[in-house]
Amino acid sequence: MQHTDTMVLSCLYIERPDPRFLRLDPQYEIGYLSASDLARYASQPEYELTEQYVDRELALGHRCLAITQGDVLASYGWYSTTPTAFSDALWVQFGKPWVYMHKGFTHPAHRGRRLHATGMTVALTLYRAAGFRGLVSIVDATNAASLASCARMGYRLFGTIYTLRLGRLLGLRQPAGLLGYTIVLATPGCRAFGFHLAHARHRSERLLTPASAVIASDSR
User: CATH number of the domain that 154 lies in?
Assistant: First the structure.
C-alpha cells in the first residue's frame, strides 16, 4: 500500500478458515521463516524485504509465514500479536484476541495460484489453534481487486479509518508543526476490535523503511 497524506482504509477481519484454501500444490512448501532464511531473502530486492524491516519485525516478535518452491520465496505474509508499524508516524493497535496480518507479497512468477490466500488460511488455522480469535488487516478502500479477493476468502468489513494532514489539504508541500500532524478518525465498528492507528510514542518507534499494511494488492 502506498501511504499518502489522505487515506481511506477498510478494516477487515476473518474468523473461519475456508477449507478450499488449505490445499497446496505439492511443488510448494509452507512454514514460518527463520531469521537466517529472512536474512537471505532480504538480500534479494525481488522479494521486497529489507534487512532493517526484517530486523524490526523480528525484534517485535512478529512472524513471517511463507510458501516456498525450493529456494524461491513464492509468497509470504507477516503476522503480529503486538502493535505494528504502519507508516513513519503511525502504528496499528488491536485487541489481544486478534492477530494482525500485514505486508502480503507473492512473487510475480507465482501469482494467479491463490498462494497468498492459502498462506493466510493456514496462518488463520494455526493462530486459532493457539487460542486467537482470528485475523485482522487493512486494505486501501480504493483497491477493489484486493477487497474482492479478501471477500472471497471470507474477510468481512468491521470499520473504516480515515487519515489526513491539514497542511497538505492547504497545499503545503512540507507542512510542519500542527499542520504536519496526521489526524486519524475511525468509525465506531473499530472499537469492538480495539483497532486504531496510534501515533508513535517514542522516536525509536519511527520506521526505518516504509511498511506495507495492505493485505495483498500485489499478491494474486
Answer: 3.40.630.30
62: pLDDT strictly greater than 70: yes
Cross-strand bridge partners of residue 42: none
Q: State the total domains in the chain.
A: 1
Nearest Cα neighbor of 64 from 55, 77, 48, 73 is: 77
- Residue 19: domain span: 7-205
State how far the Cα of 78 lies from the Cα of 215, in Å rounded to an integer.
10
Radius of gyration of the chain, Cα coordinates, nearest whole angstrom = 17
Q: What is the DSSP string of 190-212?
A: GGGGT-EEEE-SSGGGS-SS---
Task: Evaluate whether residue 1 is within a structural domain.
Answer: no
Residue 142 phi, psi (nearest 5): -90, -5
The pLDDT of residue 211: 37
pTM summary value:
0.88
3 pLDDT exceeds 70? no
Instruction: Give the three cell numbers for residue 27.
Output: 511443488
Q: Which three cell numbers stand for residue 32?
A: 514460518
